[in-house]
Write a structure and sequence with these properties.
Number of strands: 11
Number of helices: 5
Order of helices and strands: HEEEHEEEHEEEHEHE
Structural class: alpha+beta
Radius of gyration: 18 Å
Shape: globular
Largest sheet: 11 strands, mixed
Strand content: 25-35%
Number of domains: 2
CATH class of the largest domain: Alpha Beta
Strand order of the largest sheet: 1-2-3-4-11-5-10-9-8-7-6
Distance between the termini: 31 Å
CATH superfamily of the largest domain: Gcn5-related N-acetyltransferase (GNAT)
Length: 231
C-alpha cells in the first residue's frame, strides 16, 4: 500500500508517534489530540485484536483508509466516503493580486486554542479538539482581534503533510481567505520537501472546486469509518 492509502497509521508510527497510544499493529491518537485510530496495512486479525485491546470492550475507533473489511464481531457506526487530493510539484502557489484579508496571516498556538475551538464550532470543518494544534503548523487571520479564518496541518505520513481545518467565518466568505491560507500552508509544507494533500467528503462540491482551482488533483477515494469493538 502507498502510505496515503493508510495515512493515519503511517503518521502514528512516524512523525506523530509521540502523540499516539500503541498496541502492536494498532495505534490511536491521544483523544485530546485527534479522534483517529489505525491498524497496520495488512489489517490482519491480530491487528483488529490489538485495536480492540486499545479501545477496550465496546470502545470506538475512527479509521481512515482504502479497502477496509470490517470483521463481523465489530459494529459499523458510520461510513463517510472521502476524496483524497494532492498537489503536484509543478503547481505554483503564489498569492493572487486581489488578496482581501482584513489582517495579516499569523501562526496560531496554544494560547489561541479557545478562539480556534470557537471558530470550529461556528464553521464545522471537521474534527478538532483541544490539542489538535500540536499536530503541525496552524495559521489564522483575525479582524479586530477576532479569529475569522484558519488552516493547518494534521496527518504527517512520511514525505507528505495533510492540510486540514480549513474554515472561514460565514461573514467573511467570498474574499478568498481560505485559498490564501491554504497557499501559505502549502508553502510551508514544500519548504520541508514534502507534498501537500487533503481530504474532503465526496458531496462537498464547493470545496472540490476550490481545491481543483488551486491545482490539487484527486489521488484516490478513501472512507472514514466509525467502528465499535466487540463486547
Amino acid at each position: 500500500m502507498h502510505v496515503l492509502d493508510n495515512p493515519v497509521w503511517h503518521a502514528l508510527t512516524g512523525t506523530h508517534a509521540t502523540l499516539a497510544e500503541h498496541s502492536g499493529p494498532a495505534a490511536r491518537y491521544d483523544p485530546e489530540v485527534a479522534v483517529f485510530s489505525a491498524i497496520a496495512d495488512d489489517a490482519s486479525p491480530a491487528a483488529w485484536s490489538a485495536l480492540a485491546e486499545l479501545v477496550g470492550p465496546g470502545g470506538t475507533a475512527n479509521l481512515a483508509r482504502r479497502e477496509l473489511a470490517i470483521p463481523d464481531a465489530w459494529s459499523v457506526l458510520f461510513k463517510a466516503p472521502c476524496r483524497q487530493m494532492w498537489l503536484p510539484d509543478a503547481v505554483t502557489v503564489d498569492d493572487p493580486d486581489d488578496h482581501r484579508a482584513p489582517g495579516p496571516i499569523a501562526e496560531l498556538g496554544a494560547a489561541d486554542v479557545p478562539d480556534m475551538l470557537a471558530l470550529v464550532e461556528r464553521t464545522r470543518p471537521g474534527p478538532f479538539v483541544g490539542r489538535t494544534v500540536e499536530l503541525g503548523t496552524y495559521l489564522g487571520i483575525r479582524d479586530r482581534g477576532e479569529l475569522i479564518a484558519m488552516t493547518g496541518e494534521r496527518l504527517h505520513p512520511a514525505g507528505f503533510t495533510e492540510i486540514s481545518a480549513v474554515c472561514t467565518d460565514a461573514g467573511y466568505r467570498g474574499r478568498g481567505l481560505a485559498s490564501t491560507l491554504v497557499r501559505a500552508v502549502v508553502r510551508g509544507i514544500r519548504a520541508r520537501g514534502e507534498t501537500p494533500f487533503l481530504h474532503l467528503t465526496m458531496e462537498n462540491d464547493a470545496a472540490h472546486r476550490v481545491y481543483k482551482s488551486l491545482g490539487f488533483e484527486t489521488r484516490a477515494e478513501l472512507a472514514v469509518t466509525g467502528v465499535r469493538a466487540p463486547g
